[in-house]
Write a structure and sequence with these properties.
Length: 269
């Protein structure tokens, strides 16, 4: 006989996500949009601030355009409306999914605005697992010549570790500041920092590594030609990685001095 149980941390993820979605479904009805909710970061010592997140979701829903406007923009290559919210150490993403004009949920009094739950074991903590793996390799007693570029390489076999999780693992919450999306937040809490320290007032740690390389895909399930070699430059590296020195599918690097992005181009989260 084989009994299968969720890992304890996965069960906690399901419970905290369920508490939030249940509250949202009690508070809001779908009126043109469904709501996708993703808990990206939460301090395990704290509960989710349900009231504050519910207010933030309501403000987000009130500011949405007509569903057909969002649908037309999406068909022209624009992302669906979304908003990242930070409350009391929790980092939650809301994404609005336009409904069809004749959707049954528009007239169903029992329709839920939040549908599917999270992919348990995936999006909530994928970036933490990747960052832990990088830190584990960092602590090994490497003897590094300060004049030579070094790249720390790890394999990523987590199918739920999307580009947002990768960027959060490497650069922390301020990856958006690197791409010029907003001003830096200068995170003080360790859980919001990435493997490479960035930002005003933060220590410039891991400067001996020029970049981090993440090999995306599992050998058992992917042909080697389909696996991605992603390289993430270190903003504070002692030595820069010369172009063409390391083959890569995509490289996240400085584009024009201050703004960062992918080369070759790759959609940002």
């Amino acid at each position: 006989m084989l009994s299968l149980f969720l890992r304890p941390e996965w069960a906690r993820q399901a419970r905290r996500h369920g508490e939030l979605t249940d509250r949202l479904n009690r508070t809001f009805r779908p009126q043109g949009y469904f709501l996708h909710v993703e808990v990206l970061v939460q301090d395990p010592s704290r509960n989710l601030p349900l009231k504050a997140l519910t207010r933030a979701a309501g403000a987000f829903l009130e500011e949405l355009p007509e569903p057909q406007v969002a649908t037309a923009a999406y068909e022209n290559g624009q992302p669906l409306p979304w908003r990242d919210v930070e409350r009391d150490g929790s980092y939650v993403r809301f994404e609005a999914l336009p409904m069809r004009p004749n959707a049954a949920s528009l007239t169903d009094p029992d329709a839920r605005i939040v549908g599917m739950g999270p992919a348990i074991g995936g999006p909530v903590d994928s970036h933490e697992r990747l960052k832990e793996r990088l830190n584990a390799k960092r602590k090994r007693p490497y003897v590094l010549d300060s004049s030579v570029p070094y790249v720390l390489a790890v394999g990523n076999h987590d199918p739920f570790c999307n580009d947002l999780q990768l960027l959060m693992a490497i650069y922390g919450r301020d990856w958006e500041a690197l791409i010029g999306g907003r001003e830096p937040l200068w995170q003080d809490e360790l859980k919001f920092r990435g493997f490479f320290g960035i930002g005003k007032g933060e220590p410039r740690y891991n400067t001996r590594f020029t970049a981090a390389a993440v090999i995306n895909g599992a050998v058992l399930f992917h042909h080697p030609r389909t696996m991605e070699w992603l390289v993430f430059d270190n903003p504070h590296a002692r030595v820069r990685l010369l172009a063409g020195l390391l083959p890569a599918t995509h490289r996240f690097q400085a584009l024009d001095g201050s703004r960062w992005g992918w080369r070759p181009p790759r959609p940002l989260p």
